[in-house]
Structure formats: C-alpha cells, structure tokens
C-alpha cells in the first residue's frame, strides 16, 4: 500500500478522521494517496486549498493537459492514470495514448503542444526555463496571467507526485473501467498490478472521473 504505516478508517480521529470523511464523501472511498497524509492531515487540507486556487482560473481542458504533461514527465503512474483518464473528456483514448508516447495528435493545437512542452520542462528542471521560453508561449497567444497558471499547475503537480511516489503510494483507480491498452500506456513509473483489476470494488467505479 505504501512505504510508511498508514491508519485505517477505524483508527483515525480528529483532523485525520475529518480528512478521511471528506475523501470518502467526494470519491466514495478513501484513496491510497490520502492515507499517507493521515499523520499530517493539515498538509492535505493545505494542498486541497492550493489545488483549488490553481484550478479556479484555468479552463478545465488546459488544466488537465498541463497536469498530465507534468505528471507524465515526473513518471507518476497514479497521476498519469488519473489525469489521462480525465483527458478522455476532451480527447479520444487513442489521442491520449499518443500523448503518452510523446506524439502530438491533431486534436491538440500547436499552442497546447507548446504549453505541454513548457509544463514538462517546469516539472523536470525549472532552472532551464529562459526568458525566450516564456516569450515563445506569448507568441502562441498566452498572456502573463495564463503563463503563471501553467507554471503553478506544473509546479503544484511536482509537489504532489514527489510526496506520493516517495512514499510508494499504489494507484487505486478502478482500472476495470479503463481500456487496458490506455492504462498500460499511462503506467510510466511504478508498474500496475493488473491482477488486481478484477478485485476493484464497485463503489470505486463511479469515482473514476472525480480525480484529484
């Protein structure tokens, strides 16, 4: 489940219990990633506030493209699965697979491709970003506020993926509702145990589209 000991729902109290209850109310279950925050539930609360602030001014498609690019670059299987699935609201599964393989499908504009390339670089090594890189985004029509949003989304995802990946959090999205080829293409870091697909419980199926 994780590299550190986590608390089950009957074991938590106080702020941790409140955090678990919020997660269950939102997803229908307590995700594995939430359980590693059981020792510091205030950090989960602050992360949720930060994420909400980052998402609020962004178009949903743009947020998901940037987040997927950052998660994929950082080799987070859990976040790539979640946000790759979220992208199927806007793109076909085949187009998402193409993105996962480093290709740009026709459904993604040149401006979006430039934005995703920029987000990957922010996630991997922000010190390589230059004034010219920002100017290139402006040439595609992005304003300074939008560029800030792109940077914040990519940087925020770097924080979250590094927490969950460092602690060995396993993906617990309901894989049986996903196309197997798509899921496999999104497993860019920790491998998926596909033997567990059939054992996913029904309440999780409805929660797939409500990703973090």
Q: Name the overall outline.
A: globular
User: What value does the Rg take, in angstroms?
Assistant: 17 Å
Note poorly predicted spans: 197-211
Mean pLDDT: 90
Residues in helix, %: 55-70%
Features:
single chain, globular, mainly alpha
Topology:
Elements: H1 14-27, H2 32-35, H3 41-55, H4 60-73, H5 77-87, H6 93-100, H7 110-125, H8 131-139, H9 144-166, H10 180-186, H11 202-205
Structure write-up:
The protein is mainly alpha-helical. 59% of the residues lie in helices and 0% in strands. It contains 11 helices and no strands. The chain has helices at 14-27, 32-35, 41-55, 60-73, 77-87, 93-100, 110-125, 131-139, 144-166, 180-186, 202-205. Helix 4 (60-73) runs antiparallel to helix 5, helix 4 packs across helix 9 (144-166) and helix 6 (93-100) runs parallel beside helix 10 (180-186). The radius of gyration is 17 Å and the shape is globular. Residues 197-211 have low confidence and may be disordered.
Task: Summarize the model shown.
The protein has helices spanning 14-27, 32-35, 41-55, 60-73, 77-87, 93-100, 110-125, 131-139, 144-166, 180-186, 202-205. By secondary structure, the protein is mainly alpha-helical.
């Amino acid at each position: 489940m994780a590299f550190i000991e986590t608390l089950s729902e009957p074991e938590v109290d106080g702020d941790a219990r409140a955090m678990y209850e919020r997660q269950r109310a939102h997803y229908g279950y307590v995700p594995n990633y939430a359980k590693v925050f059981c020792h510091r539930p205030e950090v989960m609360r602050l992360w949720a506030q930060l994420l909400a602030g980052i998402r609020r001014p962004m178009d949903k498609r743009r947020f998901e493209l940037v987040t997927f690019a950052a998660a994929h670059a950082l080799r987070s299987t859990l976040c790539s699965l979640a946000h790759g699935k979220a992208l199927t609201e806007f793109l076909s599964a085949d187009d998402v697979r193409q993105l996962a393989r480093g290709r740009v499908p026709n459904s993604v504009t040149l401006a979006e491709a430039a934005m995703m390339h920029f987000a990957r670089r922010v996630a991997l090594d922000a010190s390589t970003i230059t004034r010219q890189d920002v100017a290139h985004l402006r040439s595609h029509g992005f304003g300074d506020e939008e560029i800030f949003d792109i940077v914040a989304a990519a940087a925020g995802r770097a924080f979250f993926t590094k927490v969950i990946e460092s602690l060995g959090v396993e993906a617990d999205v309901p894989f049986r509702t996903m196309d197997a080829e798509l899921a496999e293409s999104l497993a860019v870091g920790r491998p998926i145990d596909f033997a567990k697909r059939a054992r996913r419980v029904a309440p999780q199926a409805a929660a797939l589209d409500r990703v973090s």
